[in-house]
Amino acid sequence: MAEGGEGWTPPFSKRKSLCVITGGSKGFGRSVAVALAAELARDSHVVVLGRNSESLRDTEKLCKAMSPHIQITTLFGDLSKSSVTGSIFACLRFQVDPTDYKHALLVNNAGTVGNVSRRTWEHSDPLELDSYFNLNVASAVSLTGKFLEFVRPGNLPCTVVNVTCDEAQRPMKCHSLYCAGKAAREMMFKVMAQEEPHIRILNYNPGPLETELKTTVMIEAADDGVREEIRRLRDNNQLIDPDMPARKLVQLLKEDLFKSGEVVNFQES
Amino acid sequence: MASVGSSAVLLGPATFCAVTGGSRGLGRSIAVQLAGRLGEGSRLVLTGRSLQGLQETKRQVEEKSPNQLEVKLVTGDMEDSTVYHAHFCDIFADVKPGTFKNALMIHNAGTLGDLSKKAAEHSDAEILNKYYATNLTSVIALTAKFMQVFSASTVRRTVVNISSGTAIEPLEHHALYCSGKAARNMFFKVMAAEEPDVRVLNYSPGPMVTDMLHTTRSCGVKIVEDGFKAMESQGLIQSPDDPAKHLLTLLEEDTFKSGAFLDVFNRFSL
């Protein structure tokens, strides 16, 4: 249930929000950035992190086209490198004063599916594994910690979203790393929700999306059945346009009725 | 369901068994339980950080073993992934093709992480990376090596992931431990789905009287210490010998569904 009481400001009210989205150069991250831009109050600030400068600029253009009254900042950074989370906020410190805002939102969306051409027992390179879990688990956790630290001077109500998926709970062939990483993240944010009653935390599952991630799996997965399943979803128009769950996410954040820590599935909402 | 088509008994003669974290606690208890059950021509490899601890485990194993079980000790710290290659080669050194009929890998080693920190306070990516290297990357890479070494379909392979209720239910101040266990649980479920010829078990031993429990109990965080007092009053804290026995019984009966998560007290309906 949403918090009520004196002094509480509902998110996305008429007041300014500071939003940070990772993995915003394409796919679901881009859709969320654009959906937020459509709903945020004037002079809110959306910070989009990504690994592709050109694509980040396209995201920026789409957001500005949606709402010219929102400030957009794009930041290039590779979250598979552990030094990056620190440098993101070191950089933002020069551009953003958290005390200017009335609400803070972090959307942990960046993630990769891992090498789906490998079976579980073929993941033998520790450096690759470390890099995978750095990007997909550690960076989301450390980024969240640093984000909360960053906005603390503003004493802002905070919302943290973890973008999750079916594979966090349902084992899927060829997806051993993806399943492991998503399970770790979901659990991490559930623990956080228990520990931090004043932070609103949402594990959001947008469903199987029509994005590059699924295309990669359809082409590269080692298992015929897995490739066939994605192909079937695509042919039956069951891969979801990421804009739809992105808009739903923003609606959920506006309503602010979710139970902190819960997993909400777009396909069931 | 027991695997069909294999005549070898799980813990019979010519079994290769590796147990990580064998220098104390549950790892030691498992090793000692195995001692009486591994048949002739078997080999037990114990890994851990403390040579002294491993030597004591070996002494207890040899006392109990009727078959002059070959026990090999390999020390190493899994925090540094650059040492894995050499460490894993040591674990599986001198495994000649055809020597073993069964191969059993028990991933028991694990660390708690800093219990004084809440999830939102884990902002140092280096510390997080070391944690996941020790508790996740090393387990995955070691499993890969195990499967490479024992690749023949003539070897009956079993992999055990020592898990925890925290893989399923969030526990305050245990963000790293919970997330690492949750990740491992899912990884091994995927492995079970992909490899029907490999028996995979996620085993939750429950709270035990070990150094790990002692660390938790004395971490200085009231909510954690209260949680353990509650478990104690419910009689849930056991000697590690009890879940070790239960685990080996499960392995010998071999009726578990591959990939299942089984708890010593059946606390989780899954």
Automatic annotation (TrEMBL), chain A:
Keywords assigned by UniProt, alphabetized: Cytoplasm, NADP, Oxidoreductase
Domain of life of the organism encoding this protein: Eukaryota
Subunit-structure text: Homodimer.
InterPro entries attached to this UniProt entry: Biopterin_syn/organic_redct (IPR051721), NAD(P)-bd_dom_sf (IPR036291), SDR_fam (IPR002347)
EC code(s) of this entry: 1.1.1.153
Name of the protein: Sepiapterin reductase
Subcellular location: Cytoplasm
Principal localisation: cytoplasm
Classification via Gene3D superfamilies: NAD(P)-binding Rossmann-like Domain
Gene, per the UniProt record: LOC109475535
Assigned protein family: Belongs to the sepiapterin reductase family.
Gene Ontology CC terms, in alphabetical order: cytoplasm
TrEMBL record, chain B:
Known EC number: 1.1.1.153
Gene3D superfamilies with a match to the protein in the record: NAD(P)-binding Rossmann-like Domain
GO cellular component: cytoplasm
Pfam families: adh_short
EC supergroup of this enzyme: oxidoreductase
UniProt KW keywords: Cytoplasm, NADP, Oxidoreductase
UniProt main location, coarse: cytoplasm
Protein name stated in the entry: Sepiapterin reductase
